[in-house]
User: Fold this.
Amino acid sequence: MSRPARLFLSYRRDDAAGYAGRLEDALEQRLGAGTAFRDLDDIAPGADFVREIRAQLAQAHAVVVLIGPRWAGESGGTGGSGTAGRRRIDDPADFVRIEVQEALASGVPVVPVLLPGATMPAAGTLPEPLAALARRNAMTLGDVHWDADVDRLVAAVGLAPARRAVWPWALGGVVVAALAVGAWCRWGAGSANGALDDAALTARLAGTWQADVAYDWGDRHPERFEFRRHAGQWAGTASFLRYPRAIEHLRFDGRHLHFVTRSESSMGNETRRPTQRYAAELSADGTVLAFRLEFDGAFGSPRPVSFTAWRVPTDAAPR
Assistant:
């Protein structure tokens, strides 16, 4: 079997780490496992960064450059630059600059993707080796139209969604029918287009969930998740560092769950409003949520956190 075409995701960790992880998951759901390359997870410790980047670019189908509000790494307390008065993108040793510079030089298609709050940098504001990036047609990627934006990106780079496995004809219609009936019994009756109806979605997720979360910076807290559904809309709260925060942009298809929360943190004279991005998969029996939490805009660029949440019995939930 041939190796799947790969999309190289370039991003600055303290600018777009949450979006990069979420996009990687979305691309692999559409195009197959191993489709996306992301240095955070895919470059081994101790490996030569530039050599590895060049090797990955040599087999990449296209490069996606995620540009958020702090992509250039502005100094002065907004971008985390280590040199006062100088942007990180102006440093020849900056990893993001190296990635984009090597991508442009390689001839592989390069697609800039603007994240919420970002604008396309003008050629005159970029280092000379990166000026060609400003001439690339940019796309947008945001929470409100996430699925449609990802689909547009997939189409723009010329990749087709992965084909689902087809049962051999020898299995016969009886086996296929039995599987269909089993799936119906497992997930509940759906609507005419195959989606779960409102009552089935509510039954699978609504209620209280509890988790013990160990964060990258050493803290460990019990966290609580409250989901409710009314008139076809989801709402609720998710605690972060034991403080309940309003859930935004919740999407749930009966098995996969995505939502975000927002917080505020300060360090010295700087205040940031990072976003927590949650993705989870519900177990077949509907009692366990396997979570992955990523952070966008936080101090120190914490690594993603994986944890498990269990449904709290109704009679155990506080009244």
